[in-house]
Amino acid sequence: MQNSETIWQIVDGHRPEFEGLSDRIWGMPEIAYTEYRSVAEHTAMLKQQGFRVTENLADIPTAVMGEAGEGGPVIAILGEYDALPGLSQVANIAEPKPVEPNGHGHGCGHNLLGSAAMLAATGVKDWLAATGRPGRVRYYGCPAEEGGAAKAFMVRAGCFDDVDIAISWHPGSMTRVDDALSLANTRMDFAFTGRASHAAAAPHLGRSALDAVELMNVGVNYMREHMPSDARIHYAMIDSGGIAPNVVQATAKVRYAVRARDLPGMLALNERVKKIAEGAALMTETRVSVAVVSAVSNMLANTPLEQAMYQNMLRLGPVPFDARDRDYAAKIQATLSDEDIRSAYRRVGLPVRENTPLCDFIVPVDAKGDPMIGSTDVADVSWAVPTIQARVATHAIGTPGHSWQITAQGKAPAAHKGMVHAAKIMAGTAIDVMTDETLMARAKRDHQERTARTPYICPLPADVKPLLQPRPEAA
Ligand SMILES: [Zn+2]
Fold it and tell me: Which of 106, 142, 214, 232 is spaced 20 to 30 A from 47 at the CA atom?
């Protein structure tokens, strides 16, 4: 396909700057909506590369957008840079050892995710300038993918209204076109209020909010038998009401994540969980209030874009790992169970390959896997515009998501190679869409057909705002 090799050379030319950006983000792990230093790094890089920058996108201070080019179609390349709590980990070793006890860490590889996305956008920008073609490329720096649903808020704010196609990727252990399976997900806080009393001297006067939370959890656990088998429900105690067992707890709060295959399925489950909470409040003579924290949709596939991205992967070949990369990955694999490794293959529908610590192949686009499914806020973008995602190998096969092993591998040479490879796949796909009008038209028709069947309903209630965090005081 025309110009495809040129774009890869352009991407290669920017390699050192973006490997540096990724490593700096790795070294300043910031969690949902606190990514002030990370977004400053991304904004500075956008300006350095000559993008027109919009800060405070969708009134989110840690979101940013950079645009380049004139007229023509608009291609959005989506990046992230949020970290996870508790996954602090020293790089390039194969044993758990935090940099900072209980500190944050890039245990989902979003340092690579954002840097590769901006590298791809920079490559497309340079290609547009070199060819003089009309067209615009945008890098969207999206915060709070982990639990913050920032992209759903950005979709609601209209940030993608004039975008033609969106492209993204996620670091992984296999190189493949993303299978566009993700669960719709709502996070809700259930806050119970009772009455405090002395637990020994006046227990009859107390009404325990903690009891209500426990009963709610029991109720939901009984409901599991009677819900769709691919739905998921989990909970975490946000507030257990205090540490004194001799006080009847007057307040308690539990956060629920309710996931289902699609939006209507999730909304129905949400109502059932709310009924159980009301039942728990009734049993304990407490009161309950419900607040939606965030919500995302399920991912919408796009067949023409899947094919276009897959062709880029085939032309480019697997990530060029070397013996040293495999050596370190083998040490990481030694910390995993056989089941970790087997399930990585099962997920993509391939037989286990022995002595293959890193993915030196491309998973066929038609491989029938048995995926275990999470959720992503990229899904809401996929309802707004035709969207495609790559998975590109950056770490050892079998490495669990959200693990110290991902943080440890996050700035290894293999991770850098996967990151640059992902940028090439995304940039190549972007240019195919810009140069092949029939591809653009087919992608849009595919999207229209899917959304005509089930129109998009924003899963965020109208009054819910992102859980923005204050800018930390300058040290
Ligand atoms: Zn992630």
Answer: 106
253's CB contacts (< 8 A; 6+ apart) are 189, 190, 191, 192, 213, 237, 238, 239
Distance in angstroms (rounded) separating the CA atoms of residues 170 and 112: 8
Q: Is 253 helix (H, G, I), strand (E, B) or coil?
A: strand
Beta bridge partners of 175: 362
Helical (H) or strand (E) element with 316: helix 303-316
Side chain identity, residue 23: D
- Scanning the structure block, which residue is given the tokens 């796949």? 425
- What DSSP state is assigned to residue 337? -
The CA 178 to ligand 1 mean position distance, Å, reads 13
Pairing relation of β-strands 64-70 and 52-55? antiparallel
Do the Cβ atoms of 172 and 371 come closer than 8 Å? no
Cα angle for residues 266, 269, 274 (degrees, 5° grid): 125
- Calculate how far, in angstroms, residue 289's C-alpha sits from the geometric centre of ligand 1: 30
Taking only the tens place, the pLDDT of each residue in 352-399 is 999 999 999 999 999 888 876 788 999 999 999 999 999 999 999 999
The Å distance, Cα 29 to ligand 1 centre, comes to 13
| Token pair listed for 437 | 């009008």
- Take residue 415 and report the two structure tokens written for it: 């991770």
DSSP β-bridge partners for residue 98:
none
Give me the half-sphere count of Cα atoms (radius 13 Å) on the Cβ side of residue 113: 29
CA distance 165 to 388: 8
Report pLDDT for 373.
79
For residue 296, report the distance from its CA to the centre of ligand 1, in Å. 14
205 — phi, psi (to 5°)?
-90, -15
Q: Tell me the pLDDT tens digit for each residue of 264-296.
A: 899 999 999 999 999 999 999 999 999 999 999
Closest listed residue to residue 381, CA positions, set 75, 22, 113: 75
User: Rounded to an integer, what distance in angstroms lies between the CA atom of residue 46 and that of residue 68?
Assistant: 10
